[in-house]
Amino acid sequence: MNKYFVSVLVMVFSILGMNAQELKSPNGNFKMIFALENDGTPTYQLFMKNKEIIKKSKLGLELQKDKKSLLNDFKLVNEVRNTFDETWNTVWGEETEIRNHYNELALTLKQNETERQVIIRFRLFNDGLGFRYEFPEQKNLTYFVVKEERTEFAMTGDHTAFWIPGDYDTQEYDYTESKLSEIRGLLQGAITPNASQTPFSPTGVQTSLQMKTADGLYINLHEAALVDYSCMHLNLDDQNLIFESWLTPDAKGDKGYMQTPCRSPWRTVIVSDDARDILASKLTLNLNEPCAYEDVSWIKPVKYIGVWWEMITGKSSWSYTDDVYSVKLGQTDYSQTKPSGRHAANNDKVKRYIDFASEHGFDQILVEGWNEGWEDWFGNSKDYVFDFVTPYPDFDVKMLNAYAKEKGVKLMMHHETSASVRNYERHLDKAYQFMIDNGYNAVKSGYVGNIIPRGEHHYGQWMNNHYLYAVEKAAEYKICVNAHEATRPTGLCRTYPNLIGNESARGTEYEAFAGNKPFHTTLLPFTRQIGGPMDYTPGIFDTKLSFLSGDHSFVRTTLAKQLALYVTMYSPLQMAADLPESYERHMDAFQFIKDVAVDWDDSKYLEAEPGDYITVARKAKGTDNWFVGGITDENPRTSAFTLDFLEPGKQYVATLYADGKEADFEKNPTSYQIKKGLVTNKNKMSVKLARSGGFAVSLIEATPADLKTIKKWK
Questions:
Q1: Is 37 noted as a catalytic residue in this protein?
Q2: Is the preceding peptide bond at 193 cis, omega within 30 degrees of 0?
Q3: Would the pLDDT of 259 be above 70?
Q4: What range does the domain containing 333 cover?
Q5: Is the dihedral of CA 275, 276, 279, 284 positive or negative?
Q6: Partners of 667 in the β-ladder
């Protein structure tokens, strides 16, 4: 690790009349100006290449039961400037090494009337800005309650935005593309039903918010290192085009209980005139603390399948019986009930999945619905809903885990909490120990429904502390966590790399429920994934769900696009989500899912435009092999790129999986073609993508035998 650190301390006396401080990025392209207004209100501005990105915007916090909130009446008493440059190694990721290079300005502000102090720390990178509030230990500010955080992001124009409604309890909304001024008129129609939801404003939206200006600049607003604080949304003043931070409240309506010394998460602004730079930015990760664990050898990326899709589609069920309407754990005797015949998590079916995983090189098999309690798990605000250790009669934990071990694979645990968080925490140690005792090392957790303690929200301070507690507790048992319905990621996977995945957006399951818009997966890397990887669960080959009868939804992509998602949607947690029999009908296409890596040394974003298309190339960790994925929205397009990222002088076997000539996500989704040939770094590729289509390419270093039998690419 190379590290360069410079610190300069400057005492600033009010008699000097210095009202503005300037900070530039290491490459000089960005400039941030901090100033105190005449009434002592802190403000900041952001420029890129001398173009204003964020107009003068106010900073500060409003406190509960406080005669003098932290909004104004400040003077600058201390200034510290730092330059920091290091290269750190990832445990897993899009790249093996990440450079963390910024200039920093920390300003200590003292409130005249109260003598309370606040530090506002700015870090300016070559790709954007991060800043946060810090509250030192002090006599006049010890315990305080946040009423509102009043951080502003003043826009320079009526930008195009890709947004979902602001909500304290769900992020599972379809994206809307509109001007900022149009959000108010469109928001109500963008609020679709969910298991738990609390919209808060006619102009409230969620982060990460991706925007594009009229003159072609891309702006992304988010937060980093969300710890012991409420999740931030954005509320738009659409008359003045100013976003203000909007924190998630607790059951009482308060936005945060704080004790000094403490700090807020970072507020982030990523900016570029090239959309590819937004996707490549590591600013969010860089604003998080280094890895908290000395030993990370137990944390491994995972390629998995699961007994899941047939329940999501309605073919099978999570519950064991239809005869029980009220479950009381420890009292309800399932051995005396009649099996429904639709319970998917049974011994025979799971063994079938184990066999399939073993044959095709998958690491793990997720099994949902294995444990008692699913008959009345949802919508009843039930406290003692699951115990996380007691299986249904048709699920033999020890036998199945032994069978999996014999086949060289592992089962993946599933903990649905039904949002009864108190119940989960009191069972957590026992549940994790049960996993270790039975050979599990990874868990998918879920928080479906309204939170218990009642009145708390999914994204409030209390819940954010819970999510992190579960991850830290899991690390004690060397368990990796994939949390669904949890707060959207803010880069904490750098500090806690056993947080190997999150859902926190509409995933593939919504294709079965109601469908996702064709542009959905072209947006997620610009929005949800700015904070970390997503467990999107791609790989649906039977997009028409032909195994179902009657009216039902369908998956709004082509088969080739499903392959591409394994590259364009970065995740160290890759699921092949379809039924084994769907893959067995298309084994030639399935080969790409088997071949594609789950961890990377390098990533190159070749083409990108939010809401339109993405093309990505990634180098498999520890090899010279590359994989390329490209996707488009509802419009067909041609992707053209050069293989100049390949090592010069080497030849590779390129296998292209592309949409067929007649492919169409509605009319002919399973039409695809496969082409193979020898290539070098000088080859160019041109691939036609159907409506909501895609392509995937494997580039495997050629063997002597390949050179004799495979023709050059044409």
A1: no
A2: no
A3: yes
A4: 302-597
A5: negative
A6: none
